[in-house]
Amino acid sequence: MKKRSLSQISPNSIMKDVNPDLDIERQNPSFDVERLTNILDGGAEKTQIRRTVETWIQNDPELSRENQYFQSQNERYEEGIRKSLYLAKKMDEMGWVEGGPHRDYCSRSLSSDLAFNVHQVFVKSILGLGTDEQIAKWVPLAQKFYIAGTYAQTELGHGTYLRGLETTATFDVATQEFILNTPTLSAMKWWPGDLGRTATHAVVFAQLYLNGKSYGMHPFLMQIRSLRDHSPLPGVTVGDIGPKMNFENVDNGFLVLKNVRVPRENMLARFSQVLPDGQCKKQGTDKINYLTMIVVRVAMIQREVVIILMKACTIAIRYSAVRRQSELKPGDPEAKILDYQTQQQKLLPQLATAYAFHFVSSYLQEVFDKAYTDTKEGKFDQLPELHALASGIKVIATEYSSSGVEVCRKACGGHGYSLLSGLPSLYTRLVASCTYEGENTVLLLQTARFLIKCFGMAKDGHPIPSSVAYLSSKNFGKCQAWKKGDFLNPDVYIDAYQQRAFRMLQNAAIKLQSLVQLGVAQHEAWNSCSVQLAWAAMAHIHYIVVEQFAKALQRYEREADVHRILKHLCDLFALHGMYLNTGDFMQDGYLSTEQVAMVTESYLDLLPVIRRDAVPLVDVFDFTDTSLNSALGSYDGRVYERLYEWAKKSPTNNQDKRVFETYLKPLFKNALSKL
Amino acid sequence: MKKRSLSQISPNSIMKDVNPDLDIERQNPSFDVERLTNILDGGAEKTQIRRTVETWIQNDPELSRENQYFQSQNERYEEGIRKSLYLAKKMDEMGWVEGGPHRDYCSRSLSSDLAFNVHQVFVKSILGLGTDEQIAKWVPLAQKFYIAGTYAQTELGHGTYLRGLETTATFDVATQEFILNTPTLSAMKWWPGDLGRTATHAVVFAQLYLNGKSYGMHPFLMQIRSLRDHSPLPGVTVGDIGPKMNFENVDNGFLVLKNVRVPRENMLARFSQVLPDGQCKKQGTDKINYLTMIVVRVAMIQREVVIILMKACTIAIRYSAVRRQSELKPGDPEAKILDYQTQQQKLLPQLATAYAFHFVSSYLQEVFDKAYTDTKEGKFDQLPELHALASGIKVIATEYSSSGVEVCRKACGGHGYSLLSGLPSLYTRLVASCTYEGENTVLLLQTARFLIKCFGMAKDGHPIPSSVAYLSSKNFGKCQAWKKGDFLNPDVYIDAYQQRAFRMLQNAAIKLQSLVQLGVAQHEAWNSCSVQLAWAAMAHIHYIVVEQFAKALQRYEREADVHRILKHLCDLFALHGMYLNTGDFMQDGYLSTEQVAMVTESYLDLLPVIRRDAVPLVDVFDFTDTSLNSALGSYDGRVYERLYEWAKKSPTNNQDKRVFETYLKPLFKNALSKL
């Protein structure tokens, strides 16, 4: 490539032609890029709707993301409020209906820019926990933003463990009111989004006390700020919890309540009601409601997790096709860094992982939809399996994706450290998902509890759910691969992953049982096995992802090109996981040393194969430049031009000379006579 | 623990008494805490000096770090300049001499707050590359800050590969000047610290052209900004590269040169000189100079890397002794999270790693000091080994420490995501070290090149350096451990690590050789093996760290308590590494499935043992609260009080009502009639 000289670069406009180093990567894709985009979108029609929405967003200056990396937390918050309300108005104008695909693509594209996310949870919690009258009264107000809500559950000293929450709601029969209190410092509500600077109302979770007796956690809808002047109501102390690693657009807040009175009819009462005389009346089953926690996890995997990993892959792979460094062949020009095996080994497994999680999240959605239908019909037997799957997939998706984004970022060297690359904020945002919606270790141990139960049932000959069928049906011997090519057979690697999951679970189960038999208390034995139990759950879910990816492929067997490239990605995902965890697979000689060498070779052989299509494979994701907001990752590959243009706009280049005048000039003047 | 009620918390002062949950952890340490602090400091006298310095810093309001997490990039930069110049003045006043321990502790304690770091590199580069006259002219001016310098090597399109740099310096015999140019966009200098908004001078690396012929990279000292008004000199375009993941205190910059003339005597000419007639004259050897690159890596491991991991461990372990969550035993109060095996498995290996890296960095310093002495005497034969060690240890220390800090951060749940925890900024700062001072993959492959060479020499029966002696002297059979306790014998695990390193290197070497024999070009074969070569280098360095930790212990054999706890940490570090990489150790049956189970049990058994001393073991690091700057990690364990106090000071709580008045009030007024 001929170097572009400085004088050829217009300072105020980014060139529209594509960097030849990137262009050439797009010349001969081995598969139909548009077709694969349609597959990921769920059909050509959806691709079209998505593009309609994204083109509008890209072109509307009110939704611009320019200069976002230069903004303070306060500016980001204000932008979040402004954009959210603008978007709501526009969507109404355009007739994009609630629950429809346009609206969905809007919020997916803009979610990291918007406020009112927990306001939506506030609405959903009323819909899920409120009576029909409560829904009729509150939901329309919230949907029109006439009130702003938050969902206040987590406390300063209490997260995952709901029973530990300390906020109290004591019923006063005389006035027919609940009296809400924050009895200790650690009981203050902490972290709820939209609480810090926005919410006028909150659904507050508190321990219900009736006649001095505790009735457990219940939800109370209460006003916390004036609608007229936004000042906190009497007894309410509320504010923002300050700077975080990301989520500057969200005003996470704290809330302290001191004898705040809430009328009896404001306890959300679909499932239990307090009668005027102070009796508590339970009604219906909240098992459907239990699904609302799961649905959040199911939705976040596709919308918040996989999409971020896809963005990071897009940025890092496009950049690696443009960035040149060192001689690969002596005497040649500097090589594209994407041609180095070490770079391929960093990026291409992340790409395969993004595809794997896309397909497993579709699978999870199907399982969820079925369970949802069943639950509505009063059949609840699939819930434990669904919960174990959703928890486990949430964990593996958030863990692998966040570490994958960081691998992508570091693979871009120094420029990956600049906020202008877009990569740091993808990481700092995504990594939060390892903690929210269920802390990952806690979730893994819940999946493990399900597995241990199934393991015992399988041993006793009872039927077990399909996702764990291998626990009863399998008789594992040794791996049957004889040459490295055998490891490109999904039957071979699925068997290996099943064997590994079985073995890891068996190790933990045997230890657990023997400890109990030795007289160790059950809870202590569980704790002593928890590292291995968590690992067994991870091995199980890893198997699920591999198997579901392999199954998804089969749908495209008649489209040779698409099938071939997806098969390569599935193989890479499976073999990369084996390469990184060989010890698990070698237990009891399931894999021999020679077979481990075959896995390694088979894995490494795939890298140059996928590398040829690496850029088309990220083009498939079809992100707009606005959506990527990356100086390194734009479609045209004009990396250096963009870095320079963006850097010049940084506020660090538009300061007055105060630092010079105050601190430097008095010193520098001493050099004037000497130079 | 009785809960502190809200009314007992003074809103404006943090209570000084220690949280009983933390206090109890300090009641019965199994070892002498102060003695171990002295050992890490290098003697009781050094501890005393360090405390003198840190107490002064803690008490001087000019050096306060309060509100740092609320500051913008511009504010952080201004603070960096102000504090640096204040500190320089104070150190002079106190008579703390250059190169003395007081000054060293100052800069170590404050480095993340200061500017002028690359200014110091500018000074060192003149000292290393300049003639005596050049040193005499420029160094005193820079040391007094009468000029501010930067070291401009990296370019927008070029990092690690120095020969790829594009900036040119063409000698004009007529005027006896070099004409410096940035010929392309990718040639602009990019990233140098202190360049963006501070430097008046720069050492610029450029391709020297004499009579149309290239002579390779040379350093040119040039002025870039006016000393009078700080405006860029003619032909100079200079500015700041904008926001980064961290390092807001540093003004990383860009620099474009257009026909900027530099007098002949400004080429730093210790090793080569341009004569008036345009001839280039080489003089002396620059091998000593080669050490200056290594010395930076040696120094950064202790000062920038290990210290940050130690801080993260301190914060996360103290917090985990205070934070309570869920019932461990049914009916008991919520348990300290540090009592969960899964939490111990996250944090305690990081603690062991911090100690391991402390000792290996002392070892590296010794190797360096010896090589330095030898080099001065003209003996250069230790340089390749030193380079391989320093590169490899830099890689393992930065990789393990940065991922370790992130493990600590995530182990603190939601609060670890708040900047007020101090943990996010430790991570975002430390992770940069994986890229700067030699990108880690590049460095690993340099170490691998040394290992492959030694492997060949060993095979041919030639003598090889001591750190790789195992490549020739060993005859590996099977691991000789029979019961889990055998794995607490350093001879056993050192042998295992040697075998693994040998095996990984052998795998790569055999593959490399067979590819070449098949006719694959050397550079292609190297690239095809580079993933395995990099891994072999990692395995070698992992072995070095384990062995040096085990050796360091031996010095304290007469102090039973200190020896015992260090031995536990060394065992944990070694076994944790085996547990995570069992596949490598199982090759050819070196470890059997049964032995892997023993390693796992031995590793897990150590967790509760070390957990008992976990808080004393981080108290050993002896960080002041100012230095930690963490709401979660302070000595008194008053976590929730501090989070609340600090959050209230956040600028997000001190905004006018503009957002409410502009966006929210017009909507909320619609609800007034309805509620």
Automatic annotation (TrEMBL), chains A, B:
Its cofactor is FAD. The active site is at residue 437. Residues 1-13 have a biased composition (Polar residues). One of its GO terms (biological process) is very long-chain fatty acid metabolic process. It comes from the Eukaryota. Residues 1-23 are annotated as: Disordered. Keywords: FAD, Fatty acid metabolism, Flavoprotein, Lipid metabolism, Oxidoreductase, Peroxisome, Phosphoprotein. GO terms for molecular function: 3alpha,7alpha,12alpha-trihydroxy-5beta-cholestanoyl-CoA 24-hydroxylase activity; acyl-CoA oxidase activity; FAD binding; fatty acid binding; flavin adenine dinucleotide binding. Pfam families: ACOX, ACOX_C_alpha1, Acyl-CoA_ox_N. It is found in: Peroxisome. InterPro entries: ACOX_C_alpha1, Acyl-CoA_ox_N, Acyl-CoA_Oxase/DH_mid-dom_sf, Acyl-CoA_oxidase, Acyl-CoA_oxidase_C, AcylCo_DH-like_C, AcylCoA_DH/ox_N_sf, AcylCoA_DH/oxidase_NM_dom_sf. GO terms for cellular component: cytosol; peroxisome. Residues 290-452 form the Acyl-CoA oxidase C-alpha1 domain. FAD binds at residues 154, 193. Residues 32-147 form the Acyl-coenzyme A oxidase N-terminal domain. Residues 489-668 form the Acyl-CoA oxidase C-terminal domain. Signal peptide: none annotated. Belongs to the acyl-CoA oxidase family. This is Acyl-coenzyme A oxidase. It comes from Anolis carolinensis.
